[in-house]
Amino acid sequence: MLEQDSQGNPVIHARVVDKTTGEVLVEGQASGQLKKAVLGLVAEVKG
Questions:
Q1: Is the dihedral of CA 26, 12, 6, 21 positive or negative?
Q2: How is the chain split into domains, by residue range?
Q3: Cα dihedral across residues 21, 23, 39, 35: positive or negative
Q4: CA 46, CA 19: separation in Å to the nearest integer?
Q5: For 1-45, how does the pLDDT look when each residue is reduced to its tens digit (9 = 90+)?
Q6: Can you give the three-state secondary structure of 9-47, one letter per residue?
Q7: How far is CA 7 from the centre of its chain?
C-alpha cells in the first residue's frame, strides 16, 4: 500500500491481507523503497 507520511513523502507498506475479511495478516515495516518494504515483509513472515 502506498501512503504519504506527515511531510507528504511516499511511504510503502507491504502487507498480506485476507481477501474475504480484509484483515491484515502480516505487515512489514514501512519504507520509502518498495524493495526494502517487501524484504521487511519477508523477514516478518519468516519470523
A1: negative
A2: 2-46
A3: positive
A4: 21
A5: 888 889 988 999 899 999 999 999 998 888 888 889 899 899 888
A6: CEEECCEEECCCCCCEEEECCCECCHHHHHHHHHHHHHC
A7: 19
> What's the CA gap between 31 and 40, in Å, rounded?
9
Cα–Cα dist 43/20, whole Å: 25
Of the candidates 45, 41, 18, 23, which has an alpha carbon nearest to the alpha carbon of residue 31?
41
Q: Is the dihedral of CA 34, 25, 19, 3 positive or negative?
A: negative
Cell matching residue 25: 495478516
Question: Residue 29's Cα: distance from chain center in Å?
Answer: 6
Rounded to two decimals, what is the model's pTM? 0.65
